[in-house]
Design a protein that fits this description.
Rossmann fold, about 375 residues, about 25% strand, 5-stranded antiparallel β-sheet, 3 domains, alpha/beta
């Protein structure tokens, strides 16, 4: 998310007339460093933001981007690193996979897509982007034509009406499955030949809501922002100093627990951490949080303390309707506030990604795949 946010910011702040290209990883096979949807912005003066691989493809992609900028025509490049002789033929690739990269000039069609992604982030809504990545036909369909879909908004530059009908249907289906399927590859049979489309689901920024405003919250805020998450800090003691302390947070809410729902919206992309270090404060905040259907609710403190709070709330008729993680964080031997923040961030990432947070060296499934 942070990488894409940086690309959007760079595009918005570029000098007038500055020519650039955007590379997007649109399809992979075997083992690759990045998953589809990874992007890299390149300007004619040599500046780059983002990455498509771990560094082995970027130089060659930049050279091809120069030709794309000059011609104004997008191209698709296939990198096949499955050969054992890969180290010999020039790029020094070692991932043992296949990567397809779409390189496009930063012109109206691409700027439209970037603006669409930004609107999805700002409105905290899902969006689908369907892009033509391969054409085996002779008609007016062109590489890089796309359909943008979010709610009732449809932005279309697909030139074939029959293709539009099918792509729209599949894009709508992708949005319905937004939490589990982020990248879809569809092949459509037209009268003049086949067309392959990459359908990408743009997710809203992950919203982390931290209840507590002690000094140990600061590294949690900083790490979260480095990942591009939307961060809210709730100080139920309503201390004005919190506004200065947590300047990097997107929102600082000074309000008692009973007023939280008036100021904060919980969605399926919301996660929360309770870390006020005060038993009664945690008790009051959990009265608000437990009924929410949060995918992740972390509670700082010993398990015995959390169980006591939950039992007390249960006696008041408040039954948990959230996935509680307490003690919060992964078992990485964390001791100071920075290490604890790292363990919390890692646990949240694992839960949101539906991973078990184990060692990759013992994983038998693909690194970028789901556990199921």
């Amino acid at each position: 998310m942070k990488e894409l946010q940086d690309i959007i910011s760079a595009i918005e702040n570029r000098e007038t007339g500055e020519r650039a290209a955007l590379a997007t990883l649109v399809k992979v096979g075997g083992s690759t460093y990045r998953s589809p949807g990874a992007r890299m912005l390149m300007t004619v003066d040599g500046n780059t933001i983002g990455a498509i691989s771990g560094g082995c493809l970027e130089g060659d992609i930049f050279q091809k981007a120069e030709a794309v900028i000059e011609s104004g025509n997008p191209c698709i490049v296939k990198y096949d690193t499955t050969s054992e002789d890969d180290m010999i033929w020039g790029l020094g690739l070692g991932c043992q996979g296949v990567a397809y990269v779409l390189i496009e000039p930063l012109e109206e069609n691409k700027l439209q897509e970037i603006a669409f992604i930004k609107r999805c982030f700002e409105a905290r809504t899902y969006g689908a982007i369907a892009t033509i990545i391969n054409i085996e036909s002779e008609n007016k369909i062109k590489l890089g034509q796309r359909l943008l879909l979010s709610g009732d908004t449809i932005i279309n530059n697909l030139s074939d009406e029959n293709l539009l009908t099918d792509v729209l249907k599949d894009s709508q289906a992708a949005l319905k499955n937004n939490s589990s399927i982020l990248n879809i590859f569809k092949e459509y049979e037209l009268a003049t030949g086949k067309v392959e489309v990459f359908i990408e689901v743009i997710q809203p920024l992950l919203s982390l809501i931290i209840f507590g405003a002690g000094y140990d919250v600061l590294p949690l805020v900083n790490f979260s922002k480095q990942l591009g998450w939307h961060v809210t800090v709730v100080d139920n003691r309503q201390r004005e100093v919190s506004k200065e302390r947590f300047m990097k947070a997107d929102k600082i809410q000074l309000s008692p627990p009973e007023d939280i729902l008036e100021h904060i919206e919980f969605t399926e992309r919301s996660v929360a951490v309770v870390m006020s270090h005060n038993y009664l404060d945690d008790l009051e905040m959990l009265k608000v949080l437990l009924p929410a259907n949060l995918k992740y609710l972390g509670i700082l403190g010993p398990k015995k303390r959390t169980n006591r709070i939950l039992q007390e709330l249960k006696s008041e008729g408040i039954v948990p309707n959230a996935n509680i993680y307490s003690p919060v964080g992964l078992d990485i031997g964390a001791d100071n506030s920075e290490e604890i923040a790292l363990s919390i961030i890692s646990e949240i990432q694992a839960v949101i990604s539906e991973r078990n947070a184990g060692f990759l060296r013992v994983r038998n499934a693909p690194i970028h795949g789901k556990n199921r």
